[in-house]
Design brief:
The chain has 110 residues and is an alpha+beta fold. The chain has one domain. Helices cover 26% and strands 22% of the residues. Strands 3-1-2-5-4 form a five-stranded antiparallel β-sheet, sandwiched between helices.
Length: 110
């Protein structure tokens, strides 16, 4: 009997995350199959103390939708303004819920 190997999908499981340096400071909205490894890699590239505010299971299209919903507070790349910590303070249960909350609060985050 031969064994058939099925290649593991690159995005078999991934998390949408919100990362920041702290209160009142910009946030990074990204996606990673290993968010803690991503955090540690980024910590090694900066002197600032980055923290993950939240993670939620999600896919690439969720990240794109979140970025689009936050376009009015975009800084550069995956970084966004969050001076009142509203986005950092969210506790989404799903990526779809996150995108819905961001879209319905566009005036709040402008």
């Amino acid at each position: 009997m031969s064994v058939v190997r099925v290649p593991r999908a690159k995005w078999a499981w991934s998390a949408l995350y919100c990362m920041s340096e702290g209160p009142g400071l910009p946030i990074k909205i990204g996606i990673s199959a290993r968010p803690l490894e991503r955090l540690n890699r980024m910590r090694g590239e900066t002197w600032r103390d980055l923290q993950i505010a939240w993670t939620v299971p999600g896919l690439l299209h969720h990240e794109r939708q979140a970025h689009a919903a936050l376009s009015n507070i975009h800084i550069r790349g995956e970084w966004f303004h969050d001076p009142d910590d509203w986005v950092k303070g969210l506790a989404p249960r799903t990526a779809d819920e996150l995108v819905d909350v961001l879209r319905s609060n566009l005036r709040r985050i402008a």
